[in-house]
Amino acid sequence: MAQSTPTEPSLRLRVFRQLHPPANEHGLSLVNKCLVVLILLSVLTAVIETEVSVQSSAVQFFWLLEITFSVIFAVEYTARLWVVPENPRFAGRRFGRLRYMFTPAALLDLAALLPPLLSLAGGETFLLRAARLLRILRLARLGRFSTAMQHIGVAIRSRRYELLLSLGVAFGLLLTSSTLLYLAEQEGQPESFGSIPRAMWWSIATLTTVGYGDVYPLTALGKFFAAITAMTGIGLIAMPTGILAAAFSDALQRHSERDEQKP
Fold first, then answer.
1. Rounded to 10 degrees, what is the CA torsion of 33, 34, 36, 42?
2. Distance from chain centroid for Cα 76
3. For residue 225, which of 27, 85, 198, 242 sits 20 to 30 Å off, Cα-Cα?
């Protein structure tokens, strides 16, 4: 009886396995490792370029580096669009590539291509500063190559309603404390507490337990409200921290269970 010959994976599938970390059983592929290095180099270049004495002495060098990085990232972006039908999330769906293009990861990939265009259009203006910011934000692209970052994303999504609730509670406390300090301190310190928006700066610094000390209440009633706000801030910080810690622990446990079930 003749044995069937295993089908050779298509070129698109092989490229997909190189670019999509979960599709590679042996961790990051060589292509993805090179991309990680290139992302780190592009961010390092953007940081060094902000030093005027260095940048002015090698303008063309930095420009050529940026063009090189952008061309490589453009090829990567095009390749990801080509192979995305191999991803079960987008395969067999109408407008699968278009759906992929609006995912956070794809939008970050697209943003990585914009710095040279903004630099050409902006000169020493807001667009140039935006281009430099986008170069730094390329670091966020490393999240797709990190299993830990994927766990964090899963943890946040699984607890999004609890986190939104804690955000609502935080905003309510911020508004309440700002209003109380505005009522207690507006006459004595109109520059710092003359309106509720002005008082919010003090409330933010106090509720987050930062406590810059640049503004503080002087009246007895203001100090009383400030003490309550400070004690409330401890619980405010602990609430989302506890939610995320529990969610991250659950995500790690599910990942461990899946690894144990693998043959």
1. 170
2. 20
3. 242
